[in-house]
Amino acid sequence: MSNSLRSQTISPFILLIEDDKSVIASVKNNLAASGVLRNHLSACQSIKEATSFLEAHPEFAIILLDASLPDGMGLEGLKKLKAAFSDKIIIVLADNAHQYLGIDFIRTGAQDFILKEILDSKDIYPTIQFAVERVQLIQQEVVEKVSKIKQTNQQLYQDIFNQSKDAIYICNLEGRLVDFNQATFELFAFSEEELLEIEIHNLFHTKEKKREFLYALVANKSVTEFPMEIEQKNGKIRKCLISASMIRTAEFTGYSGLLRDITEQKKADGLRKARDIARQSAKMKEQFIANISHEMRTPMNAILGMSNLAMQTDLSKEQYSYVSSIKQSSEVLLGVVNDILVISEIQNSQLKFDYKFFDLNELLHNLMNLVQFKATEKGLKLSLQLKDGIPKIVQGDKLRLNQILYNLVLNGIKFTEKGGVNILVENQNESNDFVQLKFTIADTGIGIPSDKIDAIFETFTLIREQGMEQEGKGLGLPIAKNLVEQQGGKIGVKSELGSGSEFYFDLLFEIGEEVFPEPIQAKAAATLDKGAIRVLLVEDHKMNQLVAIKTLEKHWSDIEITVANDGQECVDILAKKDFDIILMDIQMPNMNGYEATGYIRHKMSPKKAEIPILAMTAHAHVAKNEKFREYGMDDCILKPFEPKELFRKITEYTFKYKVLT
User: Fold this and answer.
1) Angle, to 10 degrees, between the axis of helix 21-32 and the axis of helix 121-163?
2) Of 647, 277, 338, 563, nearest to 637 (Cα)?
3) Beta strands 89-94 and 60-66, pairing class
4) pTM of the prediction?
5) What span, in angstroms and rounded, lies between the C-alpha atoms of 596 and 567?
6) How far apart are CA 204 and CA 554, in angstroms?
């Protein structure tokens, strides 16, 4: 017997897989005689039985495998075991019939093989000894690997401890620090020496929160992301989340803690929340203003429409004056609504510009016609002066330019009692493609005090000086300023109290060429005079129905108007009768204007699906954003409608439908 084998301090567990009881007894006797492997040998009679045994007893590291088992003859049994237990050391016991497979056994994974016919201690002991030594070598490697892993983990922990941006510390339950990282005294803003002299719990706010944290820690052995405020040396408060785990040893009772500073995150969350609230508030305000606009425009359409109709009848001078005053007051109210909508767009950053080529001369003369009556009412002279080099056709936002000029001219008329208002247009700079134009609106009015000049462009600001009180809303000048500056221009004012004011601004325009299109309106009007226009008016408001009908009948004596009270009536009537154009309200019961238009465009016959549809709405944003086009409508008439605009669009679209299609 080998002294090396006897000297082993570790006796591996050996499993014998053998169905011949005499062989089992022989192996047991031979191994028992060694005095080393006693009580560490077990036997199974099949591979199936051995598999179950090994799964339940992983401590068996060496297998003595019979090569002649019924469920695993020759290499087959070895392959089964290697597949299931690749970490086991297998020694094959072969009879003479399998001795030729010795090399194959080794190649398949056996450590060695022994012939049963010569099985005695001189053969089996060295083989077992070698297996034992191999097991011990493997075990030694596994201790070493675990040690390395522990060392790696320890180093990893130290790296995390030292490099973490979160404060990591160990303290007793009174708050006396035992260990802490760099981030701990950075968070508390104390020096390392100072932290060791204080109880960290005294820096926790509030006493109630500190007590709640410690109770939860002791009761549950750990806490996760407990909200806690801590006080720095300078008295500043930081918001933190603390996670902690209890530590109990024979010598120490305390906990390890991790403090994460979330002050900036909380600030960011607060800003995001405030931003979301502001956005929601702005959205609600926008919706409110849009709804108010719609609710005001709907009755104003009736007031202005009826005023226009009344002024076309035989009225006495006194009656005409009354109706004219009603109309003018309604127009003032409409101006207020329009200005509020523009201010809302500006404040919500929804202001959009539509740059197209337009006739600048036409815009300026139309503006003069629009404001002339206001100047005439006050006995003022209104003049327009164009310097040399002003192009006729330019590219810009025609609507916004008109708004700017209209507000500035009305402002001049409002504060002028004698003299007049002059509009001056000058070419300040010109290249091959662009021109910079300066517009000056000068009045001979009461002027502006020097200490109030900076305030006049602020929203809802009115000058309250003696002799200067005027009706107004304080929106015209702020609107003009925003419209100019958001297009890259500059606006300013020169004024002296008692000597008038001079408002000026500049804008850049692309120069365009004048085009002389075929006069479609003239051809259309001549064509439509030859036959009646068939109009389907879709409107649920009875007064607005009357205004539209009377306005159209006064312009076209042979017009045929059919009324539908909602979208469903519209599609029902259209299915039975032909029309040249549809005037479609949008907000209606049962089926709204968008739904009715969609039904017409997609579910009716090709001829009726192509009929022109004009949206008639009090929703200003629908007209400005051209949202109506998304639903298949051709154009839009904003309520209160201007009769001339309504006539023009009906003429244009009806002509195209009747003649060109």
Assistant:
1) 70
2) 647
3) parallel
4) 0.50
5) 5
6) 83
First to last CA, the chain: 116
Residue 7 CB contacts under 8 Å (≥ 6 apart), including other chains:
none
Q: How far apart are CA 72 and CA 325, in angstroms?
A: 114
Residue from 611, 558, 635, 620 nearest 587 by CA: 620
Residue pair 247/223 in contact (Cβ under 8 Å)? The answer is no
Q: What is the largest CA-CA distance in the chain?
A: 144
pLDDT for residue 150: 55
- CA-wise closest residue to 23 among 138, 137, 124: 124
> Which tokens belong to 262?
């979330």
CA gap 445, 468 in Å, rounded: 10
pLDDT digits (tens, 9 = 90+) for 305-350: 899 899 888 989 889 888 888 887 787 777 777 777 777 777 766 6
> Does 569 score more than 80 pLDDT?
yes
Tokens encoding 51? 């598999």
Distance of alpha carbon 177 from the chain centroid? 46
pLDDT in tens, 127-153: 777 767 766 666 666 585 556 655 655
Question: Among 17-21, 536-540, 546-550, which is the least confidently predicted range?
Answer: 17-21
**Which residue shows structure tokens 């410690």?**
214
Q: Does residue 294 have a pLDDT over 50?
A: yes
Give the separation between CA 302 and CA 546, rounded to whole angstroms.
8
Structure tokens at 175: 């708050």
User: Alpha-carbon Rg of the chain, whole angstroms?
Assistant: 48
Q: Residue 238 gets which letter from DSSP?
A: E
Instruction: Dump pLDDT digits (tens) for 201-257.
Output: 999 988 899 999 999 998 899 999 999 999 999 999 999 999 999 988 878 889 999
Tell me whether residue 533 is exposed, middle or buried, using C-beta atoms within 10 angstroms of its C-beta: 0 to 12, 13 to 18, 19 or more: buried
Contacts (Cβ under 8 Å, ≥6 apart) of 243: 222, 223, 224, 225, 226, 257, 258, 260
